[in-house]
Each structure stands twice: as structure tokens, then as C-alpha cells.
Specification:
Radius of gyration: 25 Å
Helix content: 40-55%
Oligomer: single chain
Shape: globular
CATH architecture of the largest domain: 3-Layer(aba) Sandwich
Largest sheet: 6 strands, mixed
CATH class of the largest domain: Alpha Beta
Number of strands: 11
Strand order of the largest sheet: 1-2-11-10-8-9
Number of helices: 21
CATH topology of the largest domain: Rossmann fold
Strand content: 5-15%
Bound molecules: 6-O-phosphono-beta-D-fructofuranose
Length: 539
């Protein structure tokens, strides 16, 4: 056992199960053909699908089988995954580099059921009461809610508000400003009236450059547009752990949270205020309840039936054995148009690490690149590459059975598209089959046999399909929690700290050092490229 290895758990690559997985991969994993696997096991769908709260998962179109799962479960056990999960949920300081607990699950535990319940529920009650007041008085004074924040203080609400579109208060408009690029706030403010605008300044630290710049711009805009003596405090709300800095900014209404809430895990806290204003306290509580149901599943379901565990193990299998460096997420629901952006921070800021808890370089890949777009838009952009490109990229489809609109015909088309894409990725098409088809747009002058090669698909491309009955506050909560726990599982096996983010520090520090040089144009001591670019940008 090394100094920081949690509870004596070995890193994944130092286990007997890892070596066994390597043998299994060479013998059966690398060449597993999904089409043959379905022929061999007609019950493959039943064997490799799972039911979790609000989410059904078809894992059968993945390049693994029951034997692979057994080897991966052995790896999980050797890495003491269950004990580590229990430590997370109990509030142990598993974010060791920052000496912090990681307790976002406490934010959605029912009153009295989780750690720190009194504190959590006092703030929850307060910000939900505030949200309901804002909703009740919609139109006077507020018509527009502007959330100013970035990263975890932006992406959650920015993703969840459109996802819950049918539940939104129709008397209010919702805006999100994050970028330090002044175009962002300028475009938002253009259509607004200060007397009808509520700004939420959301920042865990209340020091983030982008958020502070936008908050100051908003305050100046407000002051310029209102008569002297107007009550600015009614139009600026703070959500932060830094109450002092918020007060210095001139904010008198602040909802707090705690250092044990990581930014990318914070939409369950007062950072979710824009969501609560948009959908109301009842629906916000339903979102928390959905997440809590997934927490219980993660805590209690046996590992072989535990969906976040299975997805996390699949991630390790793909990243470290198949060598897939990327995963594409394709939610077939327009409400989830910001879901991939949300997952990018959740997954890549959590698991984009190259040293283990002991500070030793890890000799294997960690976070994949996560990316995607709502279906069917992605089909007309990058799916070409998913089908016929040289890289294998597992795709995660999210299908929502019941539509959020009254156009049943379009819902049928949407779902058929979703099914067809995963089918096409897996089945592919041989050149022989392509040669028998008419291709109306093909050149009559092009050799038919060669054309068939262009029109063939390798197939055997893996995908997972997650199915929700409907996109509701409850199912959205469960879906997000599923991803949070899955990220924990792969990070735990990799032996990294999924809860710090030192990788964003260097750029911030260098930016601060460059700022005075942007005025002075002093390039002494800079590398040649940065010096040349700075001169070009400031001349
Ligand atoms: O990008 C780095 C980061 O620290 C994120 O982890 C965080 O969500 C974001 O900046 C915003 O930080 P804050 O909420 O403190 O403004």
C-alpha cells in the first residue's frame, strides 16, 4: 500500500484481474464481432441490458460479453470499489489533494437521511422559497433572469433549463452569460430592461475572472439604466461559498454552499437557483429525488446489476484495453442539446488526470474525449466519420420514449433514426451487398466494384442506448447522477483524484501575468511565438 492509495486499494494496473483482463482481451476481446455475438447468444439483449431508476440501458451492442463483465467485476472488487463508493457517500475526505469531502449526494438526500442534512435543507428551503417568490411575482418586477457564472456555475443550469422546457414558467425569460468575451453579455443585455432584470452572480469562489468581469459589466449597465438611488440589491443575487466577497460587491441576498460541493457537481445546490426559478420548487425537488434514487441504486445494487458501475467498467475496458480515446454522446431529444457540453466538464475535468493519488504518472489512458450533439443534427455532420472513419468511437445514444411536444409523427421519426444509427454502426454493410444496390447519386463513369468499396461500412462499431420513459425533472436528475457515479467508478479504478482540477490553474496564472503586458507590449522573456502573437494582437 502506498501513502495515498485509498483504503489500501491497489491501482487497477497492479491487480491480478488486470493481467487476467489483458489475457481475455487478447483471446476474446479484441476480435469480438457484435454480429456473431448476437448470433451465438440470441438472448444477448436480455443478458446485457440493465434497469436502473428512470433509466433502462441496452449495453448489448458493446464489444464485451458476460465473461468480460466477470473479469471487470473482479477488477472492481480487487480495487475495493464498494468500500471506496461507501467512503464517498459517507463524506470521507476522498478529495485528498484539497483535503475535502465530496458530498454532492448529500444535497439530494431527503431531509434527515444524509450527512449534514440540517445545513443542506436550510439552504435548500431558503433558495426554493426565493425561487417561488420570483415566479409568483413574474412580470413585476422581473421578466428576465440572467445567470452569470462559468464552468460548474453555468453548465448545469444552462443544460437543465432547456431540458425541462415543458415545465418552464412562461412569464419569465432565462439567459446565461459565461464567456469573458464581452459579446456574450452585450448580446444578452441588448434586449433587457434593468428594472425587470434579476441577475444571479453564481461563483463558488467569487473570484473567477470571467464571472467577475461580467458581474461588473452587469452592475454598470444596471446603474446607467436606472435612476439614482434605485434599489440595486433587489436585482443582484449571489450564489457562492465566499459570502464576504459577495457582500463587498454590494449583494445583500446570498445563498451559500460548501467547499465539499465541487463546481461540476453543484447544480443540486443553490447553483441550481436558475433551474428552481424556471421550473419551481416542486419540480426542483423532483429532480433531486430522481438523483437520490440513482444514488440509492449506486449504493445498494449488486455490482453486476449496478448501472453506473457497469458503465464505468465499460469505460475502463474501452479506454485501456480497446484503446478507444473518445466517446460520443447522442441524445435524441432537443431538450438535451447542451448535455454533451455539461458532460465534458463533468467527465474531462474530473478524470483528465495523468498522475495517481501518489503523484506517480499513470501508464494508461484516463478520461476519453467526450463530445456530441443532439440527434438527428449530428447525423448530418460527423456521423459519417463514426460510420466509416478510421477510428472506432463508441456512441452513447439517449432515447426518450415520450415526446415533449404534440407532433407524434416527428417523435416516431426521431426514435426510428436513433435505432437506425446504432443498428447501422453495428451491422455495417459489405462491399458485396453494396454492389447489388443502386446508388442514384453515384457517377455512371465510376467503376462499380470500386464504388462498392466506398459504399461499404465496416460495422462492429459499438454503442450503448439509454432509454428514458420521458424527460422529466425526476428522470433528468437520475440521468445526471448516473453520469456522476460512472465518472467516479472509472476514476476510482484508475487511482486518480476525480475531484480536483489543478489543470486549469496554469492558464489562469499565465493570463494574469500577460494582462499587464497587453498594455505595455513588453515581450521580454516570453517565448517567440507568444511574443509574436502578443505584438500582432496589440499593434
Ligand atoms: O474551470 C475551473 C473552475 O474552477 C471549475 O471547476 C468551476 O466550475 C469554474 O472554474 C467556476 O468556478 P467558480 O464557481 O468559483 O466561479
Amino acid at each position: 500500500m502506498t501513502a495515498n492509495s485509498p483504503m489500501g486499494a491497489p491501482r487497477c494496473d497492479r491487480t491480478a484481474a488486470w493481467s487476467a483482463l489483458q489475457g481475455h482481451f487478447e483471446a476474446h476481446g479484441r476480435d469480438l464481432d457484435l454480429r456473431e455475438a448476437f448470433t451465438r447468444d440470441p438472448a444477448r439483449f436480455a443478458h446485457l441490458s440493465l434497469e436502473a431508476p428512470e433509466v433502462f440501458a441496452d449495453l448489448s451492442k458493446n464489444r464485451w460479453d458476460l465473461a468480460t463483465q466477470r473479469f471487470l467485476l473482479e477488477l472492481a472488487r480487487e480495487c475495493r470499489l464498494e468500500a471506496r463508493r461507501d467512503a464517498l457517500l459517507a463524506g470521507a475526505r476522498i478529495n485528498a489533494t484539497e483535503g475535502r469531502a465530496v458530498l454532492h449526494t448529500a444535497l439530494r438526500a431527503p431531509r434527515g437521511a444524509g450527512p449534514l442534512s440540517d445545513e443542506v435543507h436550510a439552504v435548500l428551503d431558503a433558495f426554493l422559497a426565493f425561487a417561488d417568490q420570483v415566479r409568483a411575482s413574474a412580470g413585476a418586477p422581473y421578466t428576465d433572469i440572467v445567470n452569470i457564472g462559468i464552468g460548474g456555475s453555468d453548465l448545469g443550469p444552462q443544460m437543465a433549463v432547456p431540458a425541462l422546457e415543458p415545465y418552464l414558467h412562461r412569464g419569465l425569460r432565462y439567459h446565461f452569460v459565461s464567456n469573458v468575451d464581452g459579446s456574450d453579455i452585450t448580446a444578452v443585455l441588448r434586449g433587457l430592461k434593468p428594472q425587470h432584470t434579476l441577475f444571479i452572480i453564481a461563483s463558488k469562489t467569487f473570484t473567477t475572472q470571467e464571472t467577475m468581469a461580467n458581474a461588473h459589466a452587469a452592475r454598470a449597465w444596471f446603474d446607467a439604466g436606472m435612476p439614482a438611488g434605485a434599489d440595486r440589491a433587489k436585482h443582484f443575487i449571489g450564489v457562492t461559498t465566499n459570502l464576504k466577497a459577495a457582500a463587498e460587491f454590494g449583494i445583500t441576498t446570498t445563498f451559500g454552499f460548501w467547499d465539499w460541493v465541487g463546481g461540476r457537481y453543484s447544480l443540486w445546490s443553490a447553483i441550481g437557483l436558475p433551474i428552481a426559478i424556471a421550473v419551481g420548487s416542486e419540480h426542483f425537488r423532483a429532480m433531486l429525488a430522481g438523483a437520490h434514487a440513482m444514488d440509492r441504486h449506486f449504493a445498494e445494487a449488486p455490482l453486476e446489476k449496478n448501472l453506473p458501475v457497469q458503465l464505468g467498467l465499460l469505460d475502463v475496458w474501452y479506454r485501456n484495453f480497446h484503446g478507444f480515446g473518445s466517446r460520443s454522446v447522442a441524445p435524441y431529444h432537443q431538450g438535451l442539446k447542451r448535455f454533451a457540453a455539461y458532460l465534458q466538464q463533468l467527465e474531462m475535468e474530473s478524470n483528465g488526470k495523468c498522475v495517481d493519488m501518489d503523484g506517480q504518472a499513470v501508464p494508461f489512458g484516463t478520461s476519453p474525449v467526450v463530445w456530441g450533439e443532439a440527434g438527428t443534427n449530428g447525423q448530418h455532420a460527423y456521423f459519417q466519420m463514426l460510420h466509416q472513419g478510421t477510428d472506432v468511437i463508441p456512441v452513447e445514444f439517449i432515447a426518450v420514449k415520450r415526446a415533449a411536444h404534440d407532433l407524434p409523427d416527428q417523435q416516431t421519426k426521431l426514435l426510428a433514426n436513433c435505432l437506425a444509427q446504432s443498428q447501422a454502426l453495428m451491422l455495417g454493410k459489405t462491399a458485396a451487398a453494396a454492389a447489388t444496390e443502386m446508388a442514384p447519386t453515384a457517377s455512371p463513369d465510376f467503376d462499380r466494384a470500386r464504388l462498392a468499396q466506398h459504399r461499404s461500412f465496416p460495422g462492429n462499431r459499438p454503442s450503448t442506448t439509454l432509454v428514458l420513459e420521458a424527460l422529466t425533472p425526476r428522470s433528468l436528475g437520475a440521468l445526471i447522477a448516473l453520469y456522476e457515479h460512472r465518472v467516479f467508478v472509472s476514476g476510482a479504478l484508475w487511482g486518480i483524484n476525480s475531484f480536483d482540477q489543478w489543470g486549469v490553474e496554469l492558464g489562469k496564472a499565465l493570463c494574469n501575468a500577460l494582462l499587464p503586458r497587453m498594455d505595455s507590449r513588453d515581450v521580454s522573456g516570453l517565448d517567440g511565438s507568444t511574443a509574436g502573437l502578443l505584438q500582432r494582437l496589440t499593434s
